[in-house]
Amino acid sequence: MFKAIDTEPVVANEKFVRLLRKNKLKVTQPRLSVLQIISDKDTAISQPELEKLLGNEIDRVTLYRVLATFEEKGILHKIFDLHGTATYALCSTECDEHHHHDQHVHFICSICNSIYCLEDIKLPKINLPEGYQLDSVGINAVGRCAQCKALAE
Ligand SMILES: [Zn+2]
Ligand SMILES: [Zn+2]
Ligand SMILES: [Zn+2]
User: Fold this and answer.
1) Which bound ligand lies closest to the C-alpha atom of 148?
2) Reported pTM
3) CA–CA distance from 34 to each of 28, 38, 63, 72, 137 (Å)?
4) Domains contained in the chain, number
């Protein structure tokens, strides 16, 4: 009778456990909690926001390390908001260690500062002059998200 209530978190957890194992990471509660929160949101999330949602569950240093590891492993990608604060969003499944393939435009709302991954809008190919090395390309589309636009009308 109580089973139905438990089903959903367990399923979600299994997915994250698999993701951690695939990346040869130990399954820890802080890592699972961070993945859960980030996958529940449809916008990118900053470290301070994560801290607020996690409460006392994880200390700041641990959280910092979890995010750094996830970024390195190709689980999360980083996007800077309009104030230069780093925010994090889940990667596509093609990302792996040291290689991110999140070649999409990000939409930043200038009112609420929410960041959305526009996965269908791909970045242009950047052909650099000889001798240059490309590390990252970022294109942000800035405007009003659907919610803020609706509120203003
Ligand atoms: Zn990535
Ligand atoms: Zn907005
Ligand atoms: Zn993205």
Assistant:
1) 2
2) 0.85
3) 10, 6, 8, 15, 26
4) 1
